[in-house]
Design brief:
The chain is of the alpha+beta class. The protein is built from 10 helices and 14 strands. Belongs to the iron/ascorbate-dependent oxidoreductase family.
Length: 342
Amino acid sequence: MAYVKGLVESKTLTSVPSKYVFRGIDAKEGISLEAETIPTIDFSMLTSGTPDQRSKVIQDIGYACREWGFFMVINHGVPETLREAMIRGGESFFNLPEEEKREYEGKKLFDPIRFGTSFNVSLDKTLFWRDYLKIHVHPSFAAPHKPHGFSKSVQEYCKRTREVANELLKGISKSLGLEESYINKRMDMESGSQLLVVNLYPPCPQPDVVMGLPPHSDHGLLTILMQNELGGLQVNHNGKWVPINPLPNSFLVNTGDHMEILTNGKYKSIIHRAMVNDKATRISIATAHGPPLDSIVSPAPELVMNSENQIPAFRGIKYRDYMELQQSIELNGKSCLDHVRI
């Protein structure tokens, strides 16, 4: 298997190999030219604000989930030193000798640690300009033993982002008119699944003809993302692609397919994509938060009763089966969610 990083470092690359070229794409087409204001959530107001401040931020979360499926989180309390250690550690992992990384060249979706490229090379008609490291970090923890100290950073970082996710889920529950603990309890988030994904997008000589990742939505309830200083994330809002330039030390959070299923379509998952550049390597680190693998996720009865037609919009599906489904079909918009739509 060829990796993008090795391809870029071969020193012979002047144009993109044909298997990476997306025919007919225009990276600038549909880009929003207006300055869009991304919803911003002050996490400290959610966890330690006055009742009025908390009420206001819960309203803001509801608006962000309803209108965008995406928001930026500031004052989240995760130390900047830990975030920097994760970026450095991720970079150092990809800088390991090829044979050491290939130890984690996982073939199975639920292998604890998987190193790979593109999305699913056995299915992708065109390859994506991206190498990845995927680690199942909860309820059982795993991490590569190299580079030195990375495992410790991963464990602490994933614990802290789980805490952030659980607090956000409380706010989301309240914004839906439910008990604060509703989603955390119904989805058994204490034993829930957490997947860490480190994405490496090396510089590309022709960034306008490739994709880092194509338009897609995520599985799970929430994805919490951070990146190095290079942009590339774009979210689809009202039919336009909005380039995202986060504030320093902020997190980007998007709702996933299972939030759309659970809320019976009230809060929809967001379609987003990753673009690349010709100047430097972009690194992003995402944690996907979902229920235990064997949980069946279906619309919450309380939200079905409050919906316009009072009927479920999705059939229930085991979380594990949904993740397998996503890996078995081409990554394209909400193609996976459409399989469980009633």
